[in-house]
Specification:
With 518 residues, the chain is α/β, with parallel strands linked by helices. It has 13 helices and 18 strands. The chain has two domains: 146 residues, NAD(P)-binding Rossmann-like Domain (Rossmann fold, 3-Layer(aba) Sandwich); 321 residues, Dihydrodipicolinate Reductase, domain 2, CATH 3.30.360. Strand 5, helix 6 and strand 6 form a beta-alpha-beta unit. The protein is globular and about 80 Å long. The chain binds 6-O-phosphono-beta-D-glucopyranose. Catalyzes the oxidation of glucose 6-phosphate to 6-phosphogluconolactone.
Length: 518
């Protein structure tokens, strides 16, 4: 049986794609490779054109050379078929554009008509804004005033995160964009929603008789979501120092994964029905009422000097474009409650940070312990059952159960049964951006964030940020290469839990039954 959403069968219609920020890092690392993979897999029709837009001058040839380099370096497919490559590259043109100058947009409009004629495109327009949020409004106005929305096909705008800095700025941004585009034309990207295993959460939950009946506060003790990174802020200090982990990862990726775990089954596998259920979760998040509550439930940290695999690493305050006395958090861990019927009383622990020991995203569902029945009367240390969803870089799931140790009476030991998706030879998982671009082109906004989701998430995060502004002393340092402030361990310890090791760190303590050949 195939699992399809309602638009699965709709193929990409011909369209002009406008890439604002075409000389930037995102285009090079993610967007160009995604377009090539889609093309190679036949998911883009031949009726398309891509216009690269940025301020710096570039010829079409130079632009195509950049494109080629990016694909060689970052794409999961090789560009080794010269005929295919030339056919693909022919669809790309470049135009230097000052985004504050409407005259340039009028030129762009004329160019678009030529591209429509050349590639037999029915006037469809997809604008991809890989730009700073402050430019979303001005670009939208100039798209309208430059005549780009007058073509007879559909018009869609894809917007990169961050969508604002807090609720008021996001509202302002949204109001500006809404003057030009309708909500159903706006595709707000959260690339975590394009990840295979995040989308798989729905299938694991709703297609398995032994998960869904247990998916509630009667059987689940807690949920842990870890998104750890080994990198520091790299060359993004200027952006990151104003943002911090809470805004960079919490408001979007972390809360989105939480909603996928906590949402009710939608009535249909239809984008709006799924998003309706997700927003209900965000509305049910318990808001911290005071700074004291924030301090009790949220730990924030910043990395100091440390080391990783023998390599010395600088502290956050020594990074480029970061203030010497910066109080920006590079780590946070929070205890979150979803106050609804299903989840009342179940803590969701979420944590994310830079310069942690491993790069991984994992979701652990810890089930409540068995009552100590007669068989286990002597054992008080039975490990709870776990369902672990591995999002990144390993992809797959495993469940941890207890089984008898062969040959020994009454001896119990944990066994993990694993499905490792990323270990499967030939299962070349599409990148998140491939899925999302393909969805946007087909008009499927299921895995994009709707305004009510974005605003609810900001409202939740703003309360924490507000408390932190009032309570600067609360920032804890952690050495680069460590698992963050100890306070995050204490937070779970006080509830009788602990963070489960992620990324296979305790695999030797468990017997594995795995398709990866462990
Ligand atoms: C981005 C953040 O949204 O996600 C980055 O801005 C972060 O700070 C990145 O490094 C992580 O994404 P992934 O897919 O590599 O886990």
């Amino acid at each position: 049986m195939t699992y399809t959403n309602t638009l699965e069968s709709v193929s990409a219609e011909g369209s002009v794609y406008y890439l604002f920020g075409a000389t930037g890092d995102l285009a090079r690392r993610k967007l160009f490779p995604a377009l090539f993979s889609l093309y190679k897999e036949g998911k883009l029709s031949e009726n398309f054109a891509v216009v690269g837009l940025a301020r710096r001058p570039r010829t079409n040839e130079q632009f195509r050379a950049d494109l080629y380099e990016s694909i060689v370096e970052f794409c999961r497919y090789k560009a080794d078929d010269a005929e295919l490559w030339n056919r693909f590259a022919e669809h790309f043109v470049y135009m230097s554009l000052d985004i504050n100058d409407v005259e340039g947009f009028k030129e762009l409009s004329k160019l678009s008509e030529q591209l429509d004629a050349k590639f037999d495109i029915p006037g469809n327009r997809l604008f991809y804004l890989a730009l700073a949020p402050s430019l979303f409004g001005p670009v939208s106005f100039n798209l309208r005033d430059g005549g780009l929305l007058e073509s007879k096909g559909w018009h869609r705008v894809v917007i990169e995160k961050p969508f604002g800095y807090d609720l008021p700025s996001a509202q302002k941004l949204n109001e500006q964009i809404n003057q030009v585009f309708k909500e159903e034309e706006i595709y707000r990207i959260d690339h975590y929603l394009g990840k295979e295993m995040v989308q798989n959460i729905q299938v694991i939950r709703f297609a398995n008789a032994f998960f869904e009946p247990l998916w509630n506060n009667n059987h689940i003790a807690n949920v842990q979501i870890t998104l750890s990174e080994t990198v520091g802020v790299e060359d993004r200090g200027g952006y990151y120092d104003k943002s911090g982990a809470l805004r960079d990862m919490g408001q979007n990726h972390m809360l989105q994964m939480l909603t996928m775990i906590a949402m009710e089954p939608p009535s249909r596998l239809h984008g709006e029905d799924i998003r309706d259920e997700k927003v209900k979760v965000l509305r049910s998040l318990r808001n911290y009422k005071s700074s004291d509550e924030v301090r009790e439930n949220v730990v924030r940290g910043q990395y100091s000097e440390g080391s990783h695999h023998g390599k010395d690493l600088p502290g956050y305050r020594q990074e480029d474009s970061v203030g010497e006395d910066s109080t920006t958090e590079t780590y946070f861990a929070a205890k979150v409650f979803v106050d609804n019927f299903r989840w009342a009383g179940v803590p969701f622990y979420i944590r994310t940070g830079k310069r942690l020991p491993v790069k991984t995203t994992e979701i652990v569902i810890e089930f409540k312990s068995m009552p100590q029945n007669v068989l286990f009367a002597q054992r008080h240390d039975l490990a709870p059952n776990l369902l672990v969803i591995r999002v990144n870089p390993l992809e797959g799931i495993y469940i941890k159960v207890n089984a008898k140790t062969p040959g020994e009476n009454n001896s119990v030991q944990p066994v993990a049964m694993e499905f490792c998706q990323s270990c499967q030879v030939g299962l070349n998982t599409p990148e998140a951006y491939e899925r999302l671009i393909h969805d946007a082109v087909r008009g499927d906004s299921t895995y994009f964030t709707r305004w009510d989701e974005v605003s609810q998430a900001w409202a939740f995060v703003d309360r924490i940020a507000q408390a932190w502004r009032e309570d600067k002393g609360d920032l804890k340092q952690y050495p680069a290469g460590s698992w963050g402030p100890d306070a995050a361990n204490q937070m779970l310890g006080e509830d009788g839990f602990h963070w489960w090791p992620v990324n296979g760190q305790e695999e030797d303590k468990v017997i594995w039954v795995s398709n990866s050949g462990k």
